[in-house]
Automatic annotation (TrEMBL):
Any one GO biological process: acetyl-CoA biosynthetic process from acetate
Protein name listed in UniProt: Acetyl-coenzyme A synthetase
Keywords noted in UniProt: Acetylation, ATP-binding, Ligase, Magnesium, Metal-binding, Nucleotide-binding
Superkingdom of origin: Bacteria
Cofactor: Mg(2+)
Residues reported in the UniProt entry to bind Mg(2+): 547, 552
Function: Catalyzes the conversion of acetate into acetyl-CoA (AcCoA), an essential intermediate at the junction of anabolic and catabolic pathways. AcsA undergoes a two-step reaction. In the first half reaction, AcsA combines acetate with ATP to form acetyl-adenylate (AcAMP) intermediate. In the second half reaction, it can then transfer the acetyl group from AcAMP to the sulfhydryl group of CoA, forming the product AcCoA.
The EC number(s) this enzyme carries: 6.2.1.1
PTM field: Acetylated. Deacetylation by the SIR2-homolog deacetylase activates the enzyme.
């Protein structure tokens, strides 16, 4: 590896010496040794980490089981409990250490120690045990960001229930689809969530989901009263506090097999409905711990803050599991970065002296914009000197935003971990390690030690560095997706396609390695998945939502680059009736946006909708999305349109409503 060559570039930022000296991985030699160790004895490498980082009830004797590839199993005769590993094992030495500092939307602070968290989790788990649930039953969690969300996840883990968290911004329809797909027996929700000074109802969305029908698997609904408002509960509904009252503050963990499904998390693919990504207990926990340790260098006196909601994978691995398993102290924030003003993140960092801060490029870009016109919300107006490591996740970070983050938030002394990973990978797969990796803005740098990342062409052949291609992972790794819930065929076809030989994990992103250093740059999705403000959405999902509306005959959705959100959503719609006049068009646009908000959630509302008598199609009837992307960007169309059935349609679709 010719990493030295990167160091000669002018835009290279080396780790600060004091950080390197004390980091878990201190320099590139140590990094390379870890990679070499994995290369020399792949199973031994992971096996050692699993032995050292996890407390097993019953030690595993087998590391990787490939008998049923690509349905790989890791440590599969070992037994453990994830909640025990996140909480109980810290009690002998750290019971009074603060585990979570919670800041509510309105600025109130609540802290829980490891002992208090233990008691809360045990009481809730004991409550759950009274509900006639069995090992592996699925539980939908639809809660605001807060201590209870973590308690609910940990309590499920404690007694072997498989949770599936649904982001609070998803609609009733999305909840219903997930309940049905997962066959959930229980839903855990709250009356309201508070965000940006507003009270947003959650429980009514659950009610509506059940009214939509098909949710017969649901036996009980637990409701957390977040606001203190009186609410009448139906027969099968239980108040969270009632359930916990009189429950014992200890609860023996249920020891599960390492492959026991810890959770399902639904995420968008290029086709069909969101898929339930199934994760294991042992392998997932291992990578959650190991990446929190090496990527964030999390130490005992750190104050860690990952701003992601538990509704996303980042909020699973780097809020609910990783930091706790390491016995760390973390901040959890209920609100939004711009309320009461765009200085909120910096105020929280200052108030609690956060040392590690992990957020999404879209938030950074929004805060850059806001601070341009208002000095009071600029990071320089706050004391952020406690920070030592920064991170980003979810989408490519443009070098300009990277530099702003580095200089203004990190005062040019905090390494930025640009972490590339996915719901399916469970944890980081390409990322700098703060004490060892020289940084180049816009590059997520090098593979996490042990993860066999590469770039190949469409037939699965290796590409030379410098050539763009498909990002793949060549060997199974412990925290990988195990299957798509209820659809093993889709799992195989989506991630281990025959076109690439059936053995490579296909990430779905394009990537290129720097010709000299081998540093990775992610070039974005190669499929029809959009990344809007770091949220993953399938174009097909939005199209299906649109055509479910009575007015709509046909729809095609594409992404358009957006300077804050990364991408915005543009929909081209053919109505069943004639193309509307301008006044009517505005009305229909509003109606369709609200409709998509109800079908999926506000994050999926198209930013722009245009109407045509038809869509640009080839003679064989395929929609030419490439043309639609150009039209959405107001680009001159230079592509060959000779195969287009109806070229006249292009001019029509150029017209905005
Ligand atoms: C994108 C989020 C560039 C990528 C953890 C991936 C990134 C998708 C980065 C997964 C990054 C994530 N640089 N692109 N550092 N991190 N992505 O499942 O397209 O919500 O495939 O997981 O986000 O999104 P997901």
């Amino acid at each position: 590896m010719a990493i030295e060559s990167v160091m000669h570039e002018n835009r290279v930022f080396n780790p600060p010496k004091t950080l390197s000296e004390n980091a878990y991985v201190k320099n590139l030699e140590e990094y390379q040794q870890l990679c070499d160790a994995a290369e020399a004895d792949y199973e031994g490498y992971w096996g050692n980490l699993a032995k050292n980082l996890i407390e097993w009830k019953k030690p595993f004797t087998k590391i990787l089981n490939e008998d049923d590839a690509p349905f790989y199993k890791w440590f599969d005769d070992g037994e453990l409990n994830v909640s025990y590993n996140c909480i109980d094992r810290h009690l002998p030495n750290k019971k009074d250490k603060v585990a979570i500092i919670f800041e509510s939307d309105d600025g109130q602070t609540t802290e829980v120690t490891y002992q208090e968290l233990y008691e809360k989790v045990c009481q809730f788990a004991n409550g759950l045990k009274t509900l006639n649930l069995n090992l592996g039953d699925r539980v939908i969690i639809y809660l605001p960001m807060g201590i209870e969300a973590v308690v609910a996840m940990q309590a499920c883990a404690r007694i072997g229930l498989t949770h599936s968290v649904v982001f609070g911004g998803f609609s009733a329809k999305s909840i219903q689809e997930r309940v049905i797909d997962a066959g959930a027996k229980l839903i855990i929700t709250a009356d309201y969530q508070n965000r940006g000074g507003k009270e947003l109802p959650l429980k009514t969305a659950v009610d509506d989901a059940i009214l939509l029908g098909g949710c017969d698997s649901v036996e009980k609904v637990i409701v957390l009263n977040r606001t203190g408002k009186e609410a009448a509960l139906k027969e099968n509904e239980i108040d969270w506090h009632e359930l916990c009252k009189n429950q014992k503050e200890e609860c023996e963990p249920v020891w599960v097999n390492a492959e026991h499904p810890l959770f399902l998390l639904y995420t968008s693919g290029s086709t069909g409905k969101p898929k339930g990504v199934q994760h294991s207990s042992g392998g997932y926990l291992l990578h959650a711990i190991n990446t929190t340790k090496w990527t964030f260098d999390l130490k005992d006196d750190d104050i860690f803050w990952c701003t992601a909601d538990v509704g996303w994978i980042t909020g699973h691995t780097y809020v609910a599991y990783g930091p706790l398993a390491l016995g760390g102290t973390q901040i959890i924030f209920e609100g939004v970065p711009t309320f009461p003003n765009a200085g909120r993140f910096w105020e929280i960092v200052q108030k609690y002296k956060a040392t590690i801060f992990y957020t999404a490029p879209t938030a950074i870009r929004a805060l850059i914009k806001a601070s341009e016109s208002d000095e009071a919300v600029h990071p320089k107006s706050f004391n952020l000197s406690s920070l030592r490591i920064l991170g980003t996740v979810g989408e490519p970070i443009n070098p300009e935003a990277w530099m702003w983050y580095y200089e203004n938030v990190g005062s040019s002394k905090c390494p930025i971990a640009d972490t590339f990973w996915q719901t399916e990978t469970g944890g980081h797969v390409i990322t700098p390690l703060p004490g060892s990796t020289p940084l180049v803005p816009g590059s997520c740098t090098l593979p996490f030690p042990g993860i066999a990342i590469d770039v190949v062409d469409e037939t699965g052949q290796n590409l030379e560095w410098g050539q763009g291609g498909l990002l793949v992972i060549k060997k199974p790794w412990p925290s990988m997706i195990r299957t798509i819930w209820g659809d093993p065929e889709r799992f195989k076809n989506s991630y281990f396609p025959n076109e690439l030989g059936g053995k490579l994990y296909l990430a779905g992103d394009g990537a290129v390695r720097d010709a000299e250093s081998g540093y990775f740059t992610i070039m974005g999705r190669i499929d029809d998945v959009l990344n809007v403000s770091g949220h993953r959405l399938g174009t097909m999902e939005i199209e299906s939502a649109l055509v479910a509306n009575d007015l709509v005959a046909e729809a095609a959705v594409v992404g358009r680059p957006h300077d804050v959100k990364g991408e915005s959503i543009i929909a081209f719609v053919v109505l069943k009736s004639d193309r509307p006049n301008p006044e009517k068009a505005t009305e229909i646009v509003n109606e369709l946006r609200a409709w998509v908000g109800n079908e999926i959630g506000p994050i999926a509302k198209p930013d722009e909708i245009r109407f045509g008598d038809n869509l640009p199609k080839t003679r064989s009837g395929k929609i030419m999305r490439r043309l639609l992307r150009s039209i959405a960007k107001d680009e001159e169309i230079t592509a060959d349109i000779s195969t287009l059935e109806n070229p006249a349609i292009l001019d029509q679709l150029k017209q905005k409503v």
